[in-house]
């Protein structure tokens, strides 16, 4: 690794090129407007809305309140994305939160972001969603697949990860094509659920239960929880399903006409996903009884069994396509963050290189794959949602504060796009609430794990980055791997 500037003062707002990369060797700008919409929506729509969206209802206690939470989660995602759009215009670099924190708050906070993101965040998300893909990909072929050994699911998940690594290695255009197809399939599947619920309501099925459920859905807020911790957990659950709203910021250097397409992609994708989520939850509430909702491990499958009849097998297929597309999008964006961090000296230099012919970040893709495959072995993600949500909103809050900091520091800086100041202020307050409320109301052991993990990040930073305590064989290994993989350093393309 190379020593990164401690505070990045001399780099300006957008930063300067790192290293002496090969002239003209950059990532291709192959993501147009609709591919950007597809990437954002595709990363947001995963398996959760099909499998277990009842977590919000469980924590809030009533259907009406749960729908409000879903809508507010979509609003928060939209406000956060608008803030990120201004940051992306000011700092047009790949890497998302990492790049913005690095250029404003310096090396150490940025390293902690990349430390949690690369070692836990993205690989764990890839692995968890890949395991969901394995479950639903096998379901049509093995109706009793719940009795299959876990090693079968893990092998299919590993195959999914390796296949997507090859797709992303081969070409960024091929990866975006896969994303476009999968996103179209996801949106169509959700529209089927929405229309199916409307048809059930119009036909008045369930012997009059539909009317009772409709009245319950629209009118009851009784027994809604008043506990700040439970409300915070409900938002954690809801916002987890919106995770991915910031995906396009990770690939800014590959976005065509970013000054125009960034904002428009967000304005199209996030309201679309929010509307679908709310309508799908209404459909679930109209078709399924409260006991069925609370006991179901696969909500869309239970819905399909009642509405689609002999065509219910389409639901597992839709979930498999949805999860495959989500893993692809996470892979695409996650490897770019790893690549951007290596370019700044926060990861091994090899990870900052791209294939000389295919212009894809091959080493970063391989590293992300290796960590994800390692996490497939234990395959236990029972507590990781809250763990990742806490770290995510801690990072989001810090990133939003970058925007407020830039408003004060660079008042006269020309801005192509600017959000009203009250929007980042609201997002910062929301981030503080989501980080502090569950901690104060119901402290859990996971918080100790987070503290210890971040503490280890301080130790690694000072040893490896600040004092450069690195094995001498690293440079030799980098040279040999560079020749073997046919990769070379790059320059930034603003």
From TrEMBL:
<protein>
    <recommendedName>
        <fullName>b(0,+)-type amino acid transporter 1</fullName>
    </recommendedName>
</protein>
<keyword id="KW-0472">Membrane</keyword>
<dbReference type="GO" id="GO:0016324">
    <property type="term" value="C:apical plasma membrane"/>
</dbReference>
<feature type="transmembrane region" description="Helical">
    <location>
        <begin position="151"/>
        <end position="171"/>
    </location>
</feature>
<keyword id="KW-1003">Cell membrane</keyword>
<feature type="transmembrane region" description="Helical">
    <location>
        <begin position="31"/>
        <end position="52"/>
    </location>
</feature>
<dbReference type="GO" id="GO:0015179">
    <property type="term" value="F:L-amino acid transmembrane transporter activity"/>
</dbReference>
<keyword id="KW-0813">Transport</keyword>
<feature type="transmembrane region" description="Helical">
    <location>
        <begin position="177"/>
        <end position="201"/>
    </location>
</feature>
<feature type="region of interest" description="Disordered">
    <location>
        <begin position="1"/>
        <end position="24"/>
    </location>
</feature>
<keyword id="KW-1015">Disulfide bond</keyword>
<feature type="transmembrane region" description="Helical">
    <location>
        <begin position="384"/>
        <end position="406"/>
    </location>
</feature>
<comment type="similarity">
    <text>Belongs to the amino acid-polyamine-organocation (APC) superfamily.</text>
</comment>
<keyword id="KW-1133">Transmembrane helix</keyword>
<feature type="transmembrane region" description="Helical">
    <location>
        <begin position="64"/>
        <end position="87"/>
    </location>
</feature>
<feature type="transmembrane region" description="Helical">
    <location>
        <begin position="448"/>
        <end position="467"/>
    </location>
</feature>
<feature type="transmembrane region" description="Helical">
    <location>
        <begin position="359"/>
        <end position="378"/>
    </location>
</feature>
<keyword id="KW-0812">Transmembrane</keyword>
<keyword id="KW-0597">Phosphoprotein</keyword>
<feature type="transmembrane region" description="Helical">
    <location>
        <begin position="307"/>
        <end position="327"/>
    </location>
</feature>
<comment type="subunit">
    <text>Disulfide-linked heterodimer composed of the catalytic light chain subunit SLC7A9 and the heavy chain subunit SLC3A1. The heterodimer is the minimal functional unit. Assembles in heterotetramers (dimers of heterodimers) and higher order oligomers; the oligomerization is mediated by SLC3A1 likely to prevent degradation and facilitate heteromer trafficking to the plasma membrane. Interacts with CAV1.</text>
</comment>
<dbReference type="Pfam" id="PF13520">
    <property type="entry name" value="AA_permease_2"/>
</dbReference>
<keyword id="KW-0029">Amino-acid transport</keyword>
<dbReference type="InterPro" id="IPR002293">
    <property type="entry name" value="AA/rel_permease1"/>
</dbReference>
<comment type="function">
    <text>Associates with SLC3A1 to form a functional transporter complex that mediates the electrogenic exchange between cationic amino acids and neutral amino acids, with a stoichiometry of 1:1. Has system b(0,+)-like activity with high affinity for extracellular cationic amino acids and L-cystine and lower affinity for intracellular neutral amino acids. Substrate exchange is driven by high concentration of intracellular neutral amino acids and the intracellular reduction of L-cystine to L-cysteine.</text>
</comment>
<dbReference type="InterPro" id="IPR050598">
    <property type="entry name" value="AminoAcid_Transporter"/>
</dbReference>
<feature type="compositionally biased region" description="Basic and acidic residues">
    <location>
        <begin position="1"/>
        <end position="10"/>
    </location>
</feature>
<feature type="transmembrane region" description="Helical">
    <location>
        <begin position="262"/>
        <end position="287"/>
    </location>
</feature>
<feature type="transmembrane region" description="Helical">
    <location>
        <begin position="418"/>
        <end position="436"/>
    </location>
</feature>
């Amino acid at each position: 690794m190379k020593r990164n500037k401690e505070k990045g003062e001399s780099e300006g707002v957008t930063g300067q090129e790192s290293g002496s990369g090969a002239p003209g060797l950059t990532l291709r700008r192959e993501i147009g407007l609709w591919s950007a919409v597809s990437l954002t929506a595709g990363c947001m729509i995963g398996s959760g809305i099909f499998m277990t969206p009842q977590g919000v209802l469980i924590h809030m206690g009533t259907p009406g309140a749960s729908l409000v939470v879903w809508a507010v989660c979509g609003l928060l995602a939209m406000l956060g994305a608008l803030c990120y759009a201004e940051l992306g215009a000011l700092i047009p670099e790949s890497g998302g939160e990492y790049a913005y924190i690095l250029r404003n708050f310096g090396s150490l906070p940025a390293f902690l972001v990349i430390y949690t993101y690369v070692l836990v965040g993205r690989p764990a998300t890839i692995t968890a969603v890949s395991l969901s893909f394995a479950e639903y990909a096998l379901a049509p072929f093995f109706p009793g697949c719940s009795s299959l050994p876990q090693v079968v699911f893990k092998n299919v998940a590993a195959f999914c990860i390796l296949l997507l690594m090859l797709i992303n290695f081969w070409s960024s255009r091929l990866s975006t094509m896969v994303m476009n197809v999968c996103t179209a399939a996801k949106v169509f599947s959700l529209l089927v659920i929405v229309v199916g619920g409307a048809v059930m309501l119009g036909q008045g099925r369930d012997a009059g239960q539909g009317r009772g459920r409709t009245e319950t859905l629209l009118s009851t807020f009784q027994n809604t929880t008043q506990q700040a911790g439970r409300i915070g957990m409900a938002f954690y659950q809801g916002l987890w399903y919106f995770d991915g709203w910031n995906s396009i910021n990770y690939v800014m250097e590959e976005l065509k006409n970013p000054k125009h397409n960034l904002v428009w992609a967000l304005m199209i994708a996030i309201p679309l996903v929010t509307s679908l989520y709310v309508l799908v939850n209404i459909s679930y509430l109209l078709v399924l009884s409260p006991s069925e909702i609370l006991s179901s491990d696969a909500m869309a499958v239970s819905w399909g069994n009642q509405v689609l009849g002999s065509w219910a097998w389409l639901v597992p297929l839709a979930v498999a396509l949805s999860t495959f597309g989500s893993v692809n999008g996470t892979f695409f964006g996650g490897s770019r963050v790893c690549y951007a961090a290596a370019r700044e000296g926060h990861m091994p230099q090899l990870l900052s290189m791209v294939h000389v012919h295919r212009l894809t970040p091959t080493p970063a893709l391989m590293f992300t794959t290796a960590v994800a495959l390692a996490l497939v072995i234990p395959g236990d993600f029972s507590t990781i949602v809250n763990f990742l949500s806490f770290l995510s909103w801690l990072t989001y809050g810090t990133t939003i504060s970058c925007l407020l900091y830039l408003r004060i520091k660079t008042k006269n800086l020309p801005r192509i796009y600017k959000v009203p100041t009250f929007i980042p202020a609201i997002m910062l307050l929301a981030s503080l609430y989501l980080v502090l409320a569950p901690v104060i109301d119901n402290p859990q052991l996971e918080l100790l794990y987070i503290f210890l993990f971040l503490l280890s990040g301080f130790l690694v930073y000072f040893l490896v980055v600040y004092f450069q305590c690195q094995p001498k064989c690293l440079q030799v290994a980098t040279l040999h791997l560079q020749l073997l993989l046919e990769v070379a350093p790059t320059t930034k393309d603003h």
